[in-house]
Amino acid sequence: MAPSEPKPLSPLDKDQLQGLNSIREFLKVRTSYDVLPLSFRLIVLDTELLIKKSLSILIQNSIVSAPLWDSRTARFAGILTSTDFINVIQYYCQFPDEMSKLDQFRLNSLRDIEKAIGAVPIETVSVHPSKPLFEACLRMLKTRARRIPLVDVDSETNKEMVVSVITQYRILKFIAVNNEHNTVLLKKTVLDIGLGTYSKLATARMSDSVLDVIHLMVDQNISCIPIVDGNNRLLNVFEAVDVIPCIKGGIYEELDASVGEALCKRPDESPGIYTCGENDRMDSIFDTIRKSRVHRLIVVDDDNKLKGIISLSDVLKYVLLSGVEDTSNWS
Ligand code: AMP
After folding, report:
1. DSSP label of 144
2. Could you tell me the mean pLDDT of each successive run of 10 residues in the chain, 331 residues long?
3. Superfamily of domain 179-330 in the CATH hierarchy
4. Atom of ligand 1 nearest to the CA of 317
5. DSSP secondary structure string, 259-315?
6. Which CATH superfamily is domain 32-176 in?
7. What region holds the CBS domain (predicted)?
8. What is the Cα–Cα distance from 213 to 218, expressed in whole angstroms?
9. Is residue 270 within 6 Å of ligand 1 at its C-beta?
10. For the chain, where are the alpha helices, taking DSSP H only?
11. Ligand 1 binding pocket includes 195 (Cβ within 6 Å)
């Protein structure tokens, strides 16, 4: 039998491919340094710090993560994120008798906590800020990291220095702001390209406890749970970062509170939730990213019923890898 001819590309497909290829080329000639603003602050935490102190520092500074520094070895030691606090909560659930010890734990105990609860160790990934941005994106996708520290080496002292942290959002916004002429070519709809997750969605109700929702996030290895009503209508979204205000002051008992109560503790500057429809086009998703601090889009129908979730990792994966058959030799 003669091999079947590949289907000719439609004009829509051709534009989409051209847009994606141009964005990929752009990412190969830009570095992580290019993404950084001219002036920024960087809060780095010493691993000798008490975990409960680190929590207050994050809250006081309205940040949700910070790179870690081991001053004994004078080396970068990973990044503190909401996943670490979720691990601490799991530790509290598994070893309730050790509650008094929990207060004394320092950031350098995080790896022991991880081992004690049997969590998959968090890889200490970093990238050099002068490497192509494309590489940083691939590292993020491979390790499922939503943020990645940029670590340079001082040429005089040969010592490591943490330059900044880049997030999936910053990268996608950088693409959106500098590539409008390419993102307008992405006219296929979310439905056409199957962007996001549409089956086996993990959801919760306002009355569920924060602990139940945290367990759901851990079991499914996801960073957000849509909160729906009895008719599957979207009410809100509980995100991994929402855990931080819940354990403020080291009071873990408050985790028995409902999701509804926990969401009231969100800081005023929280970006809120963004929704889209299945027929929205990829260019409009980039428009939203260009204009707003969006961390995911929840796909709803005309009746506001939950249909799916588009995480920034889904968007980044699509932009980098869709249509690429062999990615085995990509570092
Ligand atoms: P994230 O953890 O947000 O980076 O998402 C990782 C993957 O899980 C992405 O492919 C998302 O579409 C998917 N995802 C995110 N949240 C949920 C959820 N609540 N239920 C099912 N899948 C999800």
Report:
1. T
2. 74 94 97 93 96 92 94 92 92 84 88 89 85 94 91 89 95 97 97 96 97 94 95 96 84 84 83 93 97 95 98 96 71 47
3. CBS-domain (3.10.580.10)
4. 10
5. HHHHHTTS-TT----EEE-TT-BHHHHHHHHHHS--SEEEEE-TT-BEEEEEEHHHH
6. CBS-domain (3.10.580.10)
7. 119-183, 195-254, 269-327
8. 9
9. no
10. 11-29, 32-35, 51-60, 82-94, 99-102, 110-117, 133-143, 168-178, 180-183, 190-193, 210-220, 243-246, 259-263, 282-291, 312-321
11. no
Protein residue with its CA nearest to atom 7 in ligand 1: 222
The strand pairing partners of 275, in sequence order, are 298
Distances (CA, A) of 96 to 88, 107, 246: 11, 20, 18
Q: Is the CB of 315 under 6 A from ligand 1?
A: no
pLDDT of residue 77: 93
Cα 30 off chain centre by: 21
For ligand 1, atom 6, the nearest C-alpha belongs to 222
pLDDT at 3: 64
pLDDT at position 323, please? 81
32-176 and 179-330 share one CATH topology? yes
Helix (H, G, I), strand (E, B) or coil at 233: strand
User: Which backbone phi and psi does 44 adopt, to 5 degrees?
Assistant: -110, 135
Give, in degrees to the nearest 5, the angle at Cα 259 between 257 and 263. Answer: 110
Segment (H or E) for 227: strand 224-228
Is 222's C-beta closer than 6 angstroms to any atom of ligand 1?
yes
- CA 164 to the chain's CA centroid: 16
* Predicted local confidence at residue 124, as pLDDT: 77
What's the CA dihedral at 82, 85, 90, 93 to 10 degrees? -130
Task: Supply the DSSP symbol for 118.
Answer: T
